[in-house]
């Protein structure tokens, strides 16, 4: 188990700067995923663009998952200004910022990713979320999708009844836990690094992640079925320490904003590519049965999931309710605009 003091000491030993000028020259960026992941691709492109735009005056150092601690610990390190940047997924962050649980609600987003890209880049709901992040000394720099969440299991799952008593690994988000309870499952939070062994030792019956993560962590090796229900996207957020961001010179703030805005389309395309390639790899290297739920089958899960929205509003309060309603309205408007109706 990582200790906070040890983590901060390790960062210092790795070359933490001692002057404010030096700190501005090296930005530490921590990931919740390993090398070769969607987050790694985003971070590498962020590093490239920042270093180019700063004419080499800023260096971005990338720390893959496990280098500095767990997901929750990475967020704490950002809050303490020990590192400058990190990914912070709602799957764990909702315990601290309940409003982020909106991204873990099932059947909220459009089946059309172009609609989702438009909404995540323009919705007023993101401005409301910024207020919640600021209250935790965090600056929300971007909302980043990583693909549809897919179930892997030791059994075929086609109906909520198939999930009765199913021990599924989830992140610690209260909304994620409630979502799977609504299906009759037994949600079991577990650190990402322990999921493979948990499946192998039958401590859990299945798990949920984007396809690229299922491949890179080899979860498919110890599962028999992979089921796509398009119930939710895996969405993470990019955060900076609020003090760090606010103290940047205006030109550097503008540079960060321009780079993160420009990376929105890049990462939508990249995650599509990653997930398609990794699905092919899984099919080529295993006999796991891959299936997609029909619209009728999805509707049965959708109906069960609706009660969880009331739970979200109870936990996230009035601001959370406004965020949810704004996203629903924006998604509906974007779908109508795209269909021409």
From TrEMBL:
UniProt entry tagged with the keyword Methyltransferase: no
Family: Belongs to the bacterial solute-binding protein 7 family.
UniProt entry tagged with the keyword Signal: yes
Gene Ontology CC: one annotated term: outer membrane-bounded periplasmic space
Organism: Modicisalibacter xianhensis
Protein name listed in UniProt: Tripartite ATP-independent transporter solute receptor, DctP family
Gene Ontology BP annotations: transmembrane transport
CDD domains reported in the protein's UniProt record: PBP2_TRAP_UehA_TeaA
Domain of life (superkingdom): Bacteria
Signal peptide: 1-24
């Amino acid at each position: 188990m990582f200790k906070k003091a040890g983590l901060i000491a390790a960062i210092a030993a790795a070359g933490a700067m001692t002057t404010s000028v030096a700190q501005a020259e090296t930005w530490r960026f921590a990931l919740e995923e390993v090398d070769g992941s969607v987050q790694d691709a985003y971070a590498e492109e962020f590093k490239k663009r920042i270093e180019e735009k700063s004419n080499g005056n800023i260096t971005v150092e990338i720390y893959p998952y496990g280098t500095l601690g767990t997901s929750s610990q990475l967020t704490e390190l950002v809050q303490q200004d020990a590192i400058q940047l990190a990914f912070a997924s709602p799957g764990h962050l909702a315990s601290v910022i309940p409003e982020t649980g909106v991204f873990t609600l099932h059947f909220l987003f459009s089946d059309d990713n172009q609609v989702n890209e438009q909404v995540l880049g323009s919705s007023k709901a993101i401005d409301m979320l910024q207020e919640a992040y600021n209250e935790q000394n965090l600056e929300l720099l971007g909302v980043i999708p990583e693909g549809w969440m897919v179930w892997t299991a030791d059994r075929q799952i086609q109906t909520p009844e198939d999930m009765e008593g199913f021990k599924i690994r989830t992140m610690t988000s209260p909304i994620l836990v409630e979502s799977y309870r609504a299906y009759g499952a037994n949600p079991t939070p577990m650190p990402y690094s322990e999921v493979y062994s948990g499946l192998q030792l039958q401590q859990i019956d299945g798990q949920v992640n984007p396809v690229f993560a299922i491949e890179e962590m080899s979860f498919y090796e110890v599962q028999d079925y992979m089921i796509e229900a398009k119930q939710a996207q895996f969405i993470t957020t990019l955060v900076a320490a609020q003090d760090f961001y606010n103290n940047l010179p205006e030109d550097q703030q503008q540079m960060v904003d321009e780079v993160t805005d420009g990376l929105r389309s890049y990462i939508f395309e990249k995650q599509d590519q990653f997930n398609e390639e990794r699905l092919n790899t899984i099919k080529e290297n295993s006999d796991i049965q891959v299936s997609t739920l029909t619209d009728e089958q999805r509707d049965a899960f959708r109906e069960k999931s609706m009660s969880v929205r009331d739970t979200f509003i109870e936990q996230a309060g009035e601001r959370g309710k406004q965020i949810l309603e704004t996203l629903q309205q924006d998604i509906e408007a974007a779908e109508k605009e795209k269909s021409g109706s």
